[in-house]
Design a protein that fits this description.
The structure holds two protein chains of two kinds.
Chain A lengths: L3 H12 L6 E18 L2 E19 L2 E7 L4 H15 L36 H18 L3 E20 L4 E19 L2 E11 L7 H13 L10 E7 L1 H14 L2 H5 L20 E3 L22 E5 L2 E2 L6 H7 L7 E2 L8 E2 L4 E3 L6 H6 L3 E9 L1 H4 L6 E12 L2 E14 H6 L1 E4 L4 E2 L5 E2 L2 E9 L2
Parallel strand pairs in A: 7-14
Antiparallel strand pairs in A: 1-2, 1-4, 2-3, 4-5, 5-6, 7-20, 8-9, 8-13, 9-10, 11-12, 14-15, 15-16, 16-20, 17-20, 18-19
Helix pairs in contact in A: 3-4
Chain B lengths: L6 H11 L6 E17 L2 E19 L2 E7 L4 H14 L13 E2 L17 H18 L3 E19 L3 E20 L2 E7 L2 E2 L5 H4 L2 H16 L5 E9 L5 H9 L4 H5 L20 E4 L20 E6 L2 E2 L6 H6 L8 E2 L8 E2 L3 E4 L6 H6 L3 E13 L5 E13 L2 E6 L2 E6 H6 L1 E4 L4 E7 L6 E7 L2 E9 L2 E2 L1
Parallel strand pairs in B: 4-6, 9-16, 9-24, 15-22
Antiparallel strand pairs in B: 1-2, 1-5, 2-3, 5-6, 6-7, 6-8, 9-23, 10-11, 10-15, 11-12, 13-14, 16-17, 17-18, 17-19, 19-23, 20-23, 21-22
The chains are: A alpha+beta, B alpha+beta.
Amino acid sequence: MPEDADLAALARGVAGSALAGEQIEAYALRARETDVAVFDGEVESLAVSEVDGIGVRVIVNGRTGYAWAGSLRADVVADTLAEARDNAGFGAPDEFAGLVAPDDFAGVEPPDLDLWREELLRVPVADKVALALDVERATRAADPRVRGVESAEYADTAIQAAVASSLGVEASTRRCVASVSTSALAGDRDDTQTGYGFSVGRVPGDLDVGSAATDAATRATRLLGATQPESCRLPVILDPLVSRAILGLVGSALSGEAIAKGRSMFVGRDGEVVAASSVTLVDDPTVPDAFGAATHDAEGVPVRRNELVVDGTLRGFLHNTHSARRSGVATTAAAVRAGYKSPPGVGARALHLAPGARRQDEIIAGASDALYVQSVSGLHSGTNPVSGDFSVGAEGLRVRGGAFAEPVREVTIASTLPRILLDLVEIGGDLCWLPGSAAGLTLVIGEMQMSGA
Amino acid sequence: MSALIDQPVLEATLHSALSHGGEFAEVFVEDRAVTTARLEDGRVEELVSGRERGAGIRVVRGETTGFAHTADVSESGLRAAAAAAAAAVRGDPGGTRAVALTRRTTPAPHKIRDLPESVHKARKAELLERADDAARGESDAIRQVSASYADARRQILVANSDGLLADDDQVRTRFFVNCVASADTGMQTGMEAPGRSIGFELFDEISPEAVAEVAARRALTGLRARPAPSGKLPVVLKQGAGGVLFHEACGHGLEADLVGRDASVFRGQVGERVASPLVTLVDDGTYAREWGTYAIDDEGAPAQRNVLIEDGVLTDYMWDLIRARKEGRRSSGNGRRETYQHLPMVRMTNTYLLPGTDDPDEIVRQTPHGLYCVALGGGQVNTATGDFVFGVTEAYMIENGEITEPVRAAQLIGNGPEVLGAVDAVGSDFDTWAGTCGKNGQGVPVSSGQPTLRVAELTVGGTAGA
């Protein structure tokens, strides 16, 4: 089994075959995964897998080609390089095309992060199965109104990757992630509600099965009896699970590539007020607790903290090497890849707002009339980071007189993304790192349109 | 394809997969080649090609499925994956049995003329430039054009311990155009992305220019759109635009795995009225050339045309092999997986509402006040509660039976059983729409279709008064 050094050597070998006038970057990946799904006290499926992959980018005369394959076998790697070279012949010349050189980030040291746990590879499968069975059992036991568990799972992954380029950039990264998740079904057939709970860490020992189960049961049972309310405008309190997703959308509009191509609501807004003055938004993959923490970006550049919005004013964008060159600035080490099957794009890894002071319960206690949103649906079909349009399905509870009141379902909440940023009246102090590219915290939006009956 | 792995090797792999007391074993082999080309800023940015080949092996014992996959399809690689899958079901060694495979041939649903690898890459890239020119030619307000070409050839082979040996060769081609239009009212986007289960001959039927014009006009229309209404009103869905409504409102809820988990509002309702008598809903994997079509599913079962709801009465769910075995019936040909690295589950193919008898124009004329939807984005459903959403990306107000001003993008929300009951007019026209369904994180190509139809009342999630 190839380990870090082997992946690095493989990537270096491909990059080293560059001919005169040719730039080559190779990205090699190996992931080991375990997935356990249980149902009704039985293991429904147990999958143990290894995934290998290679992605090769070739740039010749400003033309870029890319090819990938799901194998690290020498003959497959050689075919992939040949295919990437051939593909480069069909791209149009681009004066900004080119790989990053070591001098482009001289003096920037990668953060000292410990994201790997060798012990994960030694955890017996039976222990992982036990966690999935535990979270299902605990979800059922959490509340008598829980009538079933729609899905209960344990999953882990150990990913190692290496990138190497013909300009001498080399980086290896590796990380482990383990999680349990559960979805509770509460109520009877005439009034069913569902709630989701999970716990994430690096090894099974980090996971809190009890809190995942309690969260799922609480989220499902507190919606029992939910009805569709009349449409109205009102303040909206977003749960951290929801705010994380919305911040992720904002982050996609802060991509320097989207800005350069005129595909972002922030085009031409640099230096302007784009959010309430309490808003400071940074992308900081050096934070060890961040789900997206990393030492290097997808082009092998050491990551750093990037300030995007400071006290409500737009101060910066995220860049990879290409978008930075095109915009006449330096890369911010924001190259990201969706695995080995695509060339590096631009994206955030660890977006977060500077937290405020109050916990969620304190914020609720101070609210006279609002909608607390526990989860949203249709985030991808109802939001647009170019036009800023924002309209999503929501479920949650009305807040009246400082306490949760009647549950609410089958409503949408709508505004525009720029309006939401300006209408932020409070940022919670409950910052929590969750799966995805952004941290969640409780947010209060001064006013949104709720559509219902 | 089966020539790549000899029948005796498959039989030996199944034999070792059953070595821990498994009751059923399956080898799924996939060889997939894809090409994508992307243009933006008036430039072909890059051409990407990918190749993936491997096998997924599954062993079933009691309620438990063990699964392992490998990119090494040599005899030893397959045997190692079979051993891993067998060990996962925790049975005792011994009790193995021999497997003798019999080839079953399912006719292809249609012929493929131009295989992706037979077409020069330059011809694929050239389509993008034609789309760019056409979109920019629509108006100076079109500020950005992103166009993509994508093809895939997927050869699969399935062998299982019931003796089945079957294969399929699936080809798909799709073309995307996404435009950004800009004016002093802001920026708007417009997208169009037709796809079919055919090769490069797609472009005999669909010109890049026509796709680009639709996307550009959609973005330009957005510039003069006013905020969408908020609240309940009648909604007319133009033919083809609204099939995703049925995919979300009831399609997922009719998948037997979700029904079996008590996670569907349609559980226990076969034979009962679940929709307006105007609703006859079909899931049809045999629909020639459609985006969700195949000869066999990813468990080797032939695709079928399955009537799910007939004249408003629920007739059946959709089934994969595992759920069907439990119920002592046959799979309905709906067992699908994204790649050999995934376990199959119940999935839709081409899901559509059959046309009715109403004149489509008359449906609009008989709507005093409502929303007319021309293009939808994706959607999402909670099958346990039946609540679902779908995004509308091009829509107009209907006033006094006339289509009037465009409105901004918005989400629509409804409850599956309620909306099915509220379908009160079904037109005689018909069209389909290609998309990707992402159930449990596995993306598979699906299409949906419907005639022009009206839902008496649906909640529209805009920002303006209704």
